[in-house]
Amino acid sequence: MELALAKPVKSASNWYIHLFFTLICLFMIIPFVLVIAVSLTSENSLLHDGYRFIPKELSLEAYRIVLKSPEIWLKSYGVTIAITVVGTATSLLFTTLTAYPMSRRDFRYHRPLTFYIFFTLLFNGGTIPFYILMTQYLHLKNSILALIIPLLMNPFNIIIMKSYLDKMSVEIIESAKIDGSSEFRIFYRIILPLSTPALATLSLFISFAYWNDWFNALLFIDDNKYVPLQLLLVRILSQIEFLANSPLAETASKLQFANFPTLSVRMAMALVAGGPMMVMFPFFQKYFIKGITVGSLKN
Amino acid sequence: MKKGKKAYLSSVAIMLLSMTVLAGCKSDPASETTSPKATTPTTTASTTPATPAPSTLPEVKLTFYYPSNPPGKDQALVNEEINKYVKSKINATIDLKPLSFDEYDPKMNTIMASGEAFDLAWGSKYWLLSYQPNIDKGALLELTDAMISKYAPEARKNIPDKFWPDMKATDGKVYGFPVYQIAAKTKSLVIQKQFVDKYKLDVNSIKTYKDIEPFLKTIKDNEKDVIPFGMAQNSWGLYTDPNLVAADGLAVAYKKDDKTYTSITKIQQLQNKKDFFTTMHNWSKAGYINEDAPLLKNIVDLKKKGKVAVSLEFTTKPGGEVDEMVNNGGNAVVYVPISDSYFTGVASAMQVISKTSKNPERALMFINLLNTDKVLYNLISNGMEGKHYTKKDDKYIEPIKDSGYAPNVDWVFGNQFNAYLKGAQTPDVWAKTIQLNESAMVPVSYGFDVNRDSIKSEVANVTAVDNEFQVALETGAVDPADQLQKYIDKLKAAGQDKIDAETTKQWQAFLKAKGL
């Protein structure tokens, strides 16, 4: 095995493969580099020279504006990180706890239950009943829970998890039972460790959903205390758009923003908002790949 | 097997339990109740302030939603200050709820559809929280004449009577209170001052678009890398005809001296514009117009470089030159009007009261204050003196940079003519705006809109044809010699004649109803 892996591939095709992946990498990295470059360029230079990889006039003005009131940003970062961490962990647990019985053929109601979940994937009540439920029955307005609970159980994720668990062999569970294991012990000690690849994938999905969510915040959060990062960005962007293009904008306020670097601010914001996820992803990826390897060795 | 079921059940139980616990965390807002009607003030409507002594009114809390730029961290502080002031006036506190422009419509629609209680909101006729659709949904409270004369008489007095019909919904009732501001539109050329001075252009000699041609030639010949006339997809429409009443946005056009107000069809108008299209094409060929005009999305992007000598402005509000300067790379400009001033309505910005409001009378009193009280208006627009702005003299203020309160949406809050002046605004800017409003021509066709139900598909087809030809012709990119006829033929094929017939029919019915 080891020898076979180590055996060098023909050098010519090796070159092609390298070239191919180098190109793909470049296609992904170049736009990103441009975003960084633009965010560091002065607005004046952007207007006259266009986008350039090497800024003609360096300027940190965009970052100064974006990070103008750091306490607001820190608060929003805090909210987003909190809902992502708490939400992902809780959601993962709930998703698995729901999917597991659905996958157990020996559970009598596994079919109706699957249908019940599947049905919500096809039909939902719509925004207004959802809003009424959240505000008038659950009273979750202006609560951080309003940002966590709606995303807790995604039927799509549950079905992914179920189809993964479907492949678990019944024999493992039976042998564990013979050894005197309780259902909970089977779940935590056998099923969960065996599902790491699925859990890794789902946690990636879920954490992105939490990180990017702004619509729930728009609906339920009036208090600035709980405004997540993405909603803050939506607000700042709409302000920029407004001041740049609206004939309704006040003369005086336009004057105040006369030299407002709209183009570079957008790029700076993209970096501020997406940055942490991009930095975190490689660390996360380590477990992700490990998870897949564990999974592939299962049988 | 039994055990599997049990495990599942217990996990469901955990889920449900946690949900209920979470739900229980919030107190029940329904417990706060007020009975507004019982203690309605008995003051009769009069010319003297109708606001009764605050002590006779029970204290109420109002919520006010409005679109705004993010105001900053001092929002709560300013809100508190406002409450102190409003409490002394009408014994009410206001919960200010600014929402950004993107958030405003989705959130307000949800709130209104769910029947959640709130008192006041900002609305407009064609933009955010649009007027008629929300009236149709039954979300807004009717403001009767009796209510207005009782609770908001001073604010009503600020608005000229001839403008008031603009507030009427299709059922003839009024559901909002306008924020009085610029209500007229004039088409103007925007010319960079440096070139006017340099080439001694007599701006008074310019009456129509054609008169600018020699100047464009001078610029072309003498100024390298300056665009003589800048146009983009959002800035065409230079054509004006002094004999025609046809402001942009009006459904019909008619001859100014025509006492029968016969509507002129779109195809006739296009044929009349042939000379204009030819001129544009010649200008384009001569290099007076930027070549990318039909492709360029936004003219501001081009003007910001400061390299556009002449461009077009549709509104021309007094003091707008300062605004224009910002968009022109900091170069001073002059406005040269090339059309009449048309009244465009007062309903473009207003405050509405929700049907779910528990205290509509007090909400209306608050609207009255917003539109008449200088202290309140400037507090809500500019924040607190010394903290968010400094006073230069009794008229001018200077905002403090990064001060923590700067919503920059004065036109949302109330009658702008109460505002302190800022920056380069001239002292007479409000007087001039009022003067322009009152002198603006109110076309007979004002308030007329075509009911498109029977011609929906034709309108869609015509729009597609318009998209194909309009911008190209208006910016002179194509030769009208053959393209204009092609455009007209395609319009006819798309059903323009049917639209014209329907428009004429409805227009005549409208005139008849008006007794003309």
Automatic annotation (TrEMBL), chain A:
Its main location: membrane. It is a multi-pass membrane protein. It is found in: Cell membrane. GO terms for cellular component: plasma membrane. The chain crosses the membrane at residues 15-40, 77-101, 113-132, 144-165, 186-211, 263-284. Keywords: Cell membrane, Membrane, Transmembrane, Transmembrane helix, Transport. PROSITE patterns: ABC_TM1. Residues 77-273 form the ABC transmembrane type-1 domain. The keyword Membrane applies. One of its GO terms (biological process) is transmembrane transport. InterPro entries: MetI-like (IPR000515), MetI-like_sf (IPR035906). This is Carbohydrate ABC transporter permease. It comes from Paenibacillus roseopurpureus.
Automatic annotation (TrEMBL), chain B:
InterPro entries: Bact_solute-bd_prot1 (IPR050490), DUF3502 (IPR022627). The keyword Signal applies. The keyword Signal applies. Keywords: Signal. Residues 28-56 are annotated as: Disordered. Gene3D superfamilies: Periplasmic binding protein-like II (3.40.190.10). Residues 446-512 form the DUF3502 domain. Residues 30-56 have a biased composition (Low complexity). Residues 1-23 form the signal peptide. This is ABC transporter substrate-binding protein.
